[in-house]
Amino acid sequence: MNNTEKTKESVYPRSCVDCGVINCSKRNSEYPEFCLTTALTDEEIDEILKLYKQRANNKVAIASAEVEGGFYGKYTRVEETMEFAHRIGAKKIGIATCAGLIEEARIFARILRLNGFEVYGAACKVGSLPKTGIGVAPEYTCVTGNVMCNPILQAKLLAKAKVDLNVVIGLCCGHDSLFYKYAKGYTTTLIVKDRVLGNNPVQALYQARAYYRRLLTEPIIPQEGKEA
């Protein structure tokens, strides 16, 4: 490693996203020198294993592996979600949905009920509070209106309803972060919103060397706004 590479390494330490080997998955080759797996101590590994052996964590980890191993490439995400819920004993499903995807949420709720689940949903506009009331500048209300998304209230309402599993349907980028922060119990995501790509954000990555090559060639300059 030359001096330039060492300088880059100190500024941008390499991690899994820089690995082209993925030997942690295959275990049939050599690990790169910056591998996070080989950097782990026995004590750190033991600590993680202890967490996985805790009853609640163990139940979820095993159920997840069973769904992956038993239905890989066979079940849609909707079906996987229900299978996972069954395996962890979840009876009541909480849906945290974007108001813009309420029809999709309704269809999902019908499917869940058909399969014996109880359903309780909270849409993002619940509470109907103004964005300007929490400090959003008026110019940011012109396109989508002045009623704020309310992920914290969504999380609290689903917790109050004592749901066994939260399912996120299309919450806005950032609003979903607040929902995850305040959600009680386990949460999984069914739909990730992307208004440009029909709620399929991975297409931007698939087309990063074609239609969306600007993502790899033109840095996105943050727009003016309040810093945290």
Describe the model.
It is globular, with a radius of gyration of 22 Å. It has 2 domains: 1-39, no CATH class; 85-217, Diphthamide synthesis DPH1/DPH2 domain 1 (Rossmann fold, 3-Layer(aba) Sandwich), CATH 3.40.50.11840. The longest helix is centred in the N-terminal third of the chain and has 17 residues, at 55-71. It has a 4-stranded parallel sheet, with helices on both faces. β3, α8 and β4 (186-191) form a beta-alpha-beta unit. α4 runs antiparallel to α5 (77-88) and α7 (151-160) packs parallel to α8. The mean pLDDT is 93. The two termini are 38 Å apart. The chain has helices spanning 3-11, 23-26, 42-53, 55-71, 77-88, 102-114, 151-160, 175-182, 202-206, 214-217, and strands spanning 92-97, 118-123, 165-169, 186-191. It contains 10 helices and 4 strands. By secondary structure, the protein is α/β, with parallel strands linked by helices.
